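A quick aside before the break. I want you to see a complete sequence-to-structure record at least once, exactly as it would be stored in a machine-readable document. Don't worry about memorizing anything.
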Amino acid sequence: NIYDRVVFVSEKECRKINPFIDNKAAAVPMGVYKDEFIKCTYSPTLDNEICFVGNMGVAANADTLQMLVEKILPLVKVPYKFKVIGKCPKDLLDQYKNYENIVFTGRVESIYEHAKNSSLFLAPIAYGSGIKTKILEAMAMQIPVITNSIGAEGLDMVSGKHYVVKDDYISIANAVDYYLKNKEEAKKLAVAGQKSVFETYEWNSIWNRFEHILNIS
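That is the input. The structure line, written in tokens, reads:
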């Protein structure tokens, strides 16, 4: 209440708080720099690589990883390789060391270099709020994204056109199977997702929203 304006990254958060602060909250989403991703294209290899990105030392990422490995991936029928990109503590590495189809990269300099040949970006999020930068960046890299309602929060996109949003384990696994078997459909999803990110979530246009907020009396 002591501030002139309050900025959140999603409209959902604004709607929750505005009744209590005289409608002073506005949404400005996270973004990407188009120039960093403009050359990225959907280039899957034959081993059906699925990737997930995050610092596994963060509880939400570690719990999401556990959900993926123990609840969702066992339901996937198509053979795959699961690549986990990002820093990972030793206890988690030890926990999953006997899973032959899981690869941990550790901390990397370039996420794209490790993710560029992925068939899918699988990121149903265990818990959290706001826009998930990893999902925006995966779409900007032209990798088809499968997520859930938590992962999709704050994104102005259409499930089945720009990405896929499913909320139960079986439906998520079925979507993985479908897009691993139907690469042309996966490519359509990836291309449309990248286009939408560039049009709506490019940082240079998002800065204008900040300017608009600052100019409101």
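Two observations worth writing down. The longest strand covers residues 49-53. The radius of gyration is 18 Å. We'll return to this after the break.
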